[in-house]
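Re: the 80-residue chain
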Amino acid sequence: MDRKPEPINYHELAIAEVIDGKASDTDDQSMVAEVLVSMPFDMSIADTQFLFNYAHWRLSEPAKKQPARGILPEDLKRSG
């Protein structure tokens, strides 16, 4: 999946926020399970589909979708 799945309602926005917060801390299976049990609402089929699509997108190429860590601004100036 190349395009980012965009949330279209409050449930999907909540799902995306939880995934974004957990993406660097856990693997894909445990992250999806944590999201499933942590939502304060019953997830519809559409919510669940968004969860899987968003998690797949977020984890498919994490280096491109997460901010670089450990690079100081002065290091960027030296490299260019």
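The longest helix spans residues 45-60.
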